[in-house]
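Notes from hallway chat w/ T.B., transcribed later so I don't forget. T.B. wanted the structure written out for a chain they're using in a teaching module, and asked if we could keep both sequence and structure tokens in one place. Agreed to drop them here.
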Amino acid sequence: MMPMPESGFARRAFDPDAACPLDDVRVLDLSRLVAGNILTHVLADLGAEVIKVEKPGRGDDLRNWQTDGVPLWWQVYARNKKSLCLDLRQEAGREVLLRLLEGAAVLVENYRPGTLEKMGLVPDVLLGRNPKLVIVRVSGWGQTGPWRSKPGFGTLIEAFSGFAAMNGFADREPVLPAFAMADAFAGLYGAIAALAALRAAEADGGRGQVIDLSLIEPILAMLGPKAAEHRLTGATTPRLGSRCNIQAPRDVYRTRDGKYVALSSGTQGMAERLFRAIGRPELNDDPRFRSNAARLQNRAAVEALVSEFIAARTQAEALAFFDAAEVTVGPVCDEADLALHPYVIEREVLLELPDALMGSIPMHGVVPRLSATPGALRRPAPALGEHNREILRDLGLSEAEIACLDEAKVLGAPPDPDQAPSATT
């Protein structure tokens, strides 16, 4: 592992006692990988007690997404959570889960549809133990329909949704996103849905319910009117690189020093301001450029004008020029740029948090920022089974009962002493 460079990010200690808006909410997270973990990550940051129910000896598969031996995805999306190992293939493990349900508000799972039923944990059984329980069922294609049993990793959904077909350049292959986009969208929609269902369960006479959360429907929602555009025009969205078919000019532009800036003329007023700024006010009266529709028809010409202007300047010069003119241009940054950027540092967009594996680790703070009841960073990502005894004792199990579960390997092997424990400060 390479030595960790110092950064300008604000350093924060975890605050286990911070008060948060979801302090009285317990969430049981049976999911693996990204969508469910982002869903419960949002709830945990807002104060929910999230208990990751993990497979003994193996844990959440997100632990295996490692960089130089460090499970960074886990370290980020499992913060503020607790880890409980339970073998749900055994009746004793399922009984512990059912006992936990009695004090829980939300259960999240992302087994292939039908798996929970095979374990005897159908929603009716779960709601029988806790009528106000909110059950979020995450799957690739949903709990119903002809593809309900089809494996549904985000890559397949990003391809099927139409996103990949419209992403990239016309003379090259379709391009998948470089991050777990479908899972991220589903996780955020799932968190919103869980909170809405919790509100309904809290109302007079309210009851729990089942949320059927597929990966495909959130990404289609985020793609907006694409289906309507096709119905209206009969055309499909072409691959235009960083350009788009709803506004022009809009692209990334290479500067004289080999860097890039991004520009968007999202309103008519901004396009007119841009032409005045580059010394071409007459273009606002030119029939080829005086409306967005005209600029789209003459995209190559307008993009060439902007590109030529920017190419004569360094990135710093272009940014300073357009900032002074109040034109919407910004730098194209990579992770190294962000680590040094004054905006990121001064607003504390990224924070430096203690980490047992790396000493400290940069990651985002609580999103979004609530003024009166903000979320908090209470604990780092847990080691596998780190909270087994704490959770079971709180559930009322005696040491003898816990020992029996241990002996039957319901909890798996005791935590590996060589596995780094969570940092606590």
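Follow-up for T.B.: The mean pLDDT is 93. Might be a good example for the class.
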